[in-house]
Design goal:
The chain has 270 residues and is an alpha+beta fold. It folds into 3 domains: 68 residues, no CATH class; 111 residues, no CATH class; 68 residues. The strands form 2 sheets. A 7-stranded antiparallel beta sheet has the order 3-4-5-6-7-8-9. Strands 1-2 form a two-stranded antiparallel ribbon. Helix 1 runs antiparallel to helix 3 and helix 7 packs antiparallel against helix 8. The radius of gyration is 31 Å and the shape is elongated.
Length: 270
Amino acid sequence: YRLLQKVKTEFLLCERGKEAFPPETPFNFLQTACRDIKMVTMSSSDSGISPVMRPKKKCWMKISHYIDAVEFLSQIKEIVSKHRNNKIPLAKPKSYELRIGGLEDTVHAGDGEQLEVWKDCYLPERMEMVVIGALDDFRCSAAGWQLVLLVCEDGNVYAYEFEVLHLVARSLEDLFETGAEFPGLEKFRFGECFEELSEEEMKKEMQCDEIKKIDDEHIHFRRRLEIEMLEDLKAISQSEVIMIQTEGMRDITKHDKSVYIEIRESLRLK
């Protein structure tokens, strides 16, 4: 129990660290705070841990209440690595536990491209994410019946089912206190974030130099292929395939020219 509390505390202190400066904090104050404060240390005598929050000069950026998202997710990743394979019981789904681990501890091990797809192809805009673990033997359409959980740079927690990202919690605190909502509070399907081009936009895209180059190369390739096929068929039609008749073998006659004629005519029609 003490270990579980320690793990949750580390996650939550990391999450609260990025909220040290609330969104409504005046801009000038933020500049002063970021310049003057070198280190803020919070300690817990019960857990024996001393997490550290280091504000950056660019803490007024839009990401994660002005604290750099890369640093926040990097700290989360360190906590995951430190406590991998530990399990945290969740209030929801009932009787399930979050097994802490990174991408390599899931069914997607070795597939770094999958993480990039989660970042790029689901949410309305690209978001950095870190895998924090999985719910094993979870009956759904996810690969290997494994629901992979990710923390996003905005603090939201998502679960990946086949080609769907479920928003299962608004924060790590919500995840640990009330559990993971599945199906999610919101669902984001693969590719929905990309706007469908209109007919005019599609025509414009097709006129770009790269597309024209690909089309030209394809046309030249087909022409060369047709010429080579016609030359080969012509050579075959002009030759006689004769095999000396021997005992136990059938006599093979001239090659049927109709095959060549039929293919030649079909190519000409194209």
